[in-house]
Amino acid sequence: MTAPDGGHHPAGGGHAGHSHGPAPRSADGTPSPSARFRGRLAATFGLTAALFLVELVAGLLSGSLALVADAGHMATDVLALGASLVATRIAGRPDGSGRRTYGRYRAEVFSAGLTVLLMVGVGVFVVVEAVDRIGTHPEVATGVMLVVGVIGLLVNLVGLMLLRQGSTESLNVRGAYLEVLGDAAGSVGVLAAAALIRWTGSSVWDVVVAAAIGVFVLVRAVSLGRSVLSVLGQHAPQGADLDRMLGDLTAVPGVAAVHDLHVWALTSGMDVATAHLVAEPGADHHHVLDAARDVLARDHRIMHATLQVEPADHTACGEIGW
Question: CA-CA distance, 71 to 79, in Å (whole number)?
């Protein structure tokens, strides 16, 4: 059986346990994507927290539901970004208990799940408030809305640029990126509402835009939630071709068959796999093990694989029904 670093463990060893070497890392051997983008997350957190305070005060003074709605969304962003930062710290800490055999990397996934819950809460609240305001005609200070909308859009564009690259590599950073993207859309909505109110003289556009912001937040929450559940449900990672992987392992010299192939994501950028390799009679099990490990690392970017090599007449695994 291979260790995370590809080493061999002799069968029938006398030790009660053994070390699996360093905790799993990204496919290229670097720290997790979230850890690499921690500085950018911190900068975005600071900008978002400052903008939240500005929008909340301005929304209350101007009477704009759209502005208050966007401020409420930004409040969840502050919490979500803070949770993302904490998760990157937790994920990188070594485990001293000996019970977390995969380390603490799932903290990043749980952080993304918290972001989903916050987004759903804000989305529902904003939509309900918008519906409750239908038929009312409050006075809205469009000048304040325009100024704050421009400031918010500029700040959010900076945040998007900081997190864009990391959003393609880390589920944790993706959650933060989607939060900031929602803020940017909210700022555009605030500007649109202010312009429409000035143009038509009707404050109904404030309610319409607020409802649109709420729906936009809910749609993004569903998208991110599906990704989180996919990881927690141990689905095959997106882009993983299991048929090709099975074929590549079967084609390894000395392998007669492959069964019990399982592939899942520990966290973003850290895919792991297990498989049983049935060796041909006379095959060198060490060579089979090394070649299979190399195939998974080179062709499928799976650096952490636990592989069991079995003789052709080994049938015990067939008794397992799941």
Answer: 13
CATH number of 33-232: 1.20.1510.10
pTM confidence score: 0.66
Measured distance CA(297)–CA(57) in Å, rounded: 53
- With contact defined as beta carbons under 8 Å apart, do 177 and 77 qualify? no
Give the bridge partners for 259, in sequence order: 276
Q: What is the pLDDT of residues 250-298, one digit of tens each?
A: 999 999 989 889 998 877 677 889 999 999 988 889 999 999 999 998 8
Phi, psi of 41 (to 5 degrees): -60, -40
* 255-267, strands of its sheet edge to edge: 255-267, 270-279, 304-311
What is the rounded average pLDDT of the residues 305-316?
80
Instruction: Answer whether 34's CB lies under 8 Å from 86's CB.
Output: no
Residue range 242-313 forms a domain whose CATH class is alpha beta
- pLDDT the model gives residue 177: 82
> Domain boundaries in the chain?
33-232, 242-313
